[in-house]
């Protein structure tokens, strides 16, 4: 249950802090080197704290083309809904790739084409951690996540259309060629996302078109080195900045800047600052392998691993997306394969020991 803000005093308190910055852990702007992000960000300029919104899940999902009926024999499609799910992590998509976190548009397009060819269907982080993986039988979920809200991820042109050279434009292009490949993703945003002051145009477009907006803190603070007050402020302020543009839209997914958890770790999942409460159903790390199925006993929604999008060369390439997609494809790692029925959880009987007992009523081993 979200608590309501404590009136005008709380509004003035948070507004003042947002303008002045928070110094409980030194400088919230301090970041490790070589992450490819700008060091300076404008002050948020937030003037009042709105009521903490309820929850609206966003637009309904479009019907999937080619969906097999829910009565499909799980064994016939090799269903394994206890298998691993690749949660891919992207930062900048740019021709001027300068660091290990950058991908060129050509690399990004090629990775999406590979996912489509190999039967992956994108789902949002909200759908994944909520267990709402509703994709055709025989296909595999993949979660596309973007950190830091860089303009190379998404821009609108003068006509209000996505720039075709951005990550969103490329995703839409690939989806048009592969109708079963849902053009959805989760964007973990900071202040002034995508170079759009306050995100007034970009956040609204993404939400209205089925994308998920997640929290990446307002200032991209290294939470593991921040005091508790700074942690709660930065997460709450990040959520509130989204609610200023999208009132009533729940923010249920968070990615930790640099993958570094605060101390205590529970502060990332839920907390409050100046009357703004936040609660995340999924907290995402920065690496370095596929995530367990949300139906498995090994799934921890407070520490969901991700895989950095990366080619076969470079630092830690064996933990990057190309290497992991190879392992998932050739069976060295067991991947999640859908049975086509979101109301049941199908898997080979030999994998039953992996099931979270909380999901036993929906289990359908074969």
TrEMBL record:
<keyword id="KW-0732">Signal</keyword>
<dbReference type="InterPro" id="IPR051398">
    <property type="entry name" value="Polysacch_Deacetylase"/>
</dbReference>
<feature type="region of interest" description="Disordered">
    <location>
        <begin position="291"/>
        <end position="366"/>
    </location>
</feature>
<feature type="compositionally biased region" description="Basic and acidic residues">
    <location>
        <begin position="58"/>
        <end position="70"/>
    </location>
</feature>
<dbReference type="Pfam" id="PF01522">
    <property type="entry name" value="Polysacc_deac_1"/>
</dbReference>
<feature type="domain" description="NodB homology">
    <location>
        <begin position="140"/>
        <end position="263"/>
    </location>
</feature>
<dbReference type="InterPro" id="IPR002509">
    <property type="entry name" value="NODB_dom"/>
</dbReference>
<feature type="signal peptide">
    <location>
        <begin position="1"/>
        <end position="25"/>
    </location>
</feature>
<feature type="compositionally biased region" description="Basic and acidic residues">
    <location>
        <begin position="31"/>
        <end position="45"/>
    </location>
</feature>
<dbReference type="InterPro" id="IPR011330">
    <property type="entry name" value="Glyco_hydro/deAcase_b/a-brl"/>
</dbReference>
<feature type="region of interest" description="Disordered">
    <location>
        <begin position="24"/>
        <end position="77"/>
    </location>
</feature>
<protein>
    <submittedName>
        <fullName>Polysaccharide deacetylase family protein</fullName>
    </submittedName>
</protein>
<feature type="compositionally biased region" description="Basic and acidic residues">
    <location>
        <begin position="327"/>
        <end position="366"/>
    </location>
</feature>
